[in-house]
Amino acid sequence: MLHLNNLSRKINKLLLIFTAMILYGCNALIHTPTGSKNSTLGEITPYTSKLKQLPKPNEPVVVAVYKFKDQTGQYKASDYNSNWSTAIPQGTTSILLKALEDSQWFTTIERENIGDLLNERQIIKTTRQEYSNGQDKTLLPPLLFAGIIIEGGIISYDTNLLTGGAGLRYFGVGGSTQYRQDRLSVYLRAVSTSTGKILKTVYTSKTILSQSVNGSFFRYVDPERLLEAEVGITKNEPVHLAVKEAIENAVYSLVIEGSKDDLWKVSEENKESFNELVENQNKLDSINTTRFVDLKENLNRGRIGIFGSATGNLVKNDLLNSESKLGINFGLKFLISDFWNVSATASTFELANKKIFNKSYNSLDLDVEYLLFPQSKFTPFGNIGIGIISPSEGENKEISGKVHAGGGFEYMLSKKLGIRAFGRYDFGFSDDWENVIAGKRNDNMIVFGAGLNLYFGNRKNK
After folding, report:
1. Does residue 15 lie within any of the structural domains?
2. Which of 68, 267, 295, 342 is most buried (CB neighbours < 10 A)?
3. What range does the domain containing 396 cover?
4. Matching InterPro entries, A to Z (predicted)?
């Protein structure tokens, strides 16, 4: 009976922990869409409000859009079978017409289905003639003709520009996260109907981000009982909204750029506010050094960096029941180039085996580190190094050597400040870290942690 009570308490504790993970770590599950919802008006993007808030023009320009379509010819990617659904929505002409209308700088006329319009006008003429015995001489008003034709399309949809993820599993409990970044590009041009001259061309792009987070639990809580649980969330940015934002951005840019060349003019009372928008757009263009997948050319870590981290340390020695203990480290690094740097790290930490061994240690390490994407805000890295370790208390403070290898990732919050997470494995040169020499293997240690990097000094990218 006692054994069953203990087992029940263990299971209840595990279930409570996992429930807490679900409720607090996976907030999206609280709002799981289990019921039907009423239809709503379409979502807006940041450029929807920008278009609607543009100052009024001196006179709207009559424009025609014959076709604005997907020119990529791509189909949705599928890991399991052939997929004949297109990667890009096929109603992009409607999206463009809506953006032109929202700007209030253009009067749009129907040209995509001009055949339907002409047929309907012919039906009206025929009906009037037949049912009025030819007496109804009323003419239909003439069709508007466009001074400018808007052409272009979605010319690229690049998938898997940036992919990655991270995960950790320990004794059946773990989690992982993955992400993927795609990008689409839109070209828009204004063509004069009187001369055929291309008056202005603009180009915009939009990234599409997909993310997933998963957690799992797999443990034997008893020789005959297995507890298994999983939880996960996937978030995909809608392609339709990405297309809509890119097209609206193109229309917004077309209004601004066209006004610089006097293709169209703002009203006199709104000239001052419109000039401010033009100046702001010029500033954005001057600092727009974005490459693909948001790599910044001007992201430049300083030549010297200082860092500090909180660590977890798990000893792998000759004793049983190793425990993870906290530690801290501080260090100094020198960047040799964009990709390579060397660092020195001082650490203090504890190593322990449950109810058997617990001792404080100090270590000093020298590392060589390689950054995979040094000009990106997010970059994985790998490092190798050597070091020494010695107890910080007791009479026996013999110094031992070690080598280590590891890796992690760094995310730059700004040009000077970065946050990083890492893990490494230390291979000891001796078997007496815990003052017990047994077996054929030396003592080792697993280290994992997270901290901040602060960079100083100026250095040109190479």
Report:
1. no
2. 68
3. 304-456
4. Curli_assmbl/transp-comp_CsgG, OMP/PagP_B-barrel
Q: Are residues 351 and 276 in the same domain?
A: no
CA dihedral 79, 82, 87, 90 (to 10 degrees): -160
Q: Give yes or no for residue 325 having a pLDDT over 50.
A: yes
For residue 348, give the H/E element and its range. Answer: strand 340-353
Please tell me whether residues 314 and 391 are part of one structural domain: yes
* Total tally of structural domains belonging to the chain: 2
Mean pLDDT of the 73-102 span: 83
Whole-prediction pTM: 0.65
Rounded-to-integer distance, Cα 349 and Cα 329, Å: 8
Q: What is the pLDDT of residues 313-322, one digit of tens each?
A: 888 877 777 8
200 has a pLDDT exceeding 90:
yes
Name the helix (H) or strand (E) containing 185: strand 173-192
Q: Which residue has the tokens 């603009």?
A: 202
What is the phi/psi pair of residue 59, to 5°? -160, 130
Question: Could you give the angle at the alpha carbon of 59 between the alpha carbons of 57 and 61, nearest 5°?
Answer: 100
Q: Which three-class secondary structure state does DSSP give residue 228?
A: strand
Task: Give 427-462 pLDDT, tens digit per residue.
Answer: 888 877 766 666 667 888 889 899 999 998 876 544
The answer on 318 and 401 residing in a single domain is yes
Q: What is the 3-state secondary structure (H, E, C) of 299-312?
A: CCCCCEEEEEEEEE
Give me the amino acid identity at 102.
Answer: D
Tell me how far CA of residue 60 lies from CA of 24, 46, 66, 100, 102, in angstroms.
52, 23, 19, 10, 12
In a domain, 124, yes or no: yes
Which helix (H) or strand (E) segment holds residue 175: the answer is: strand 173-192
Exposure string of 337-361, with b = 16+ CB inside 10 Å and e = fewer, is ebbebebebebebbbbbeeebebeb
Kindly state whether residues 214 and 320 are assigned to the same domain. no
pLDDT of residue 25: 47
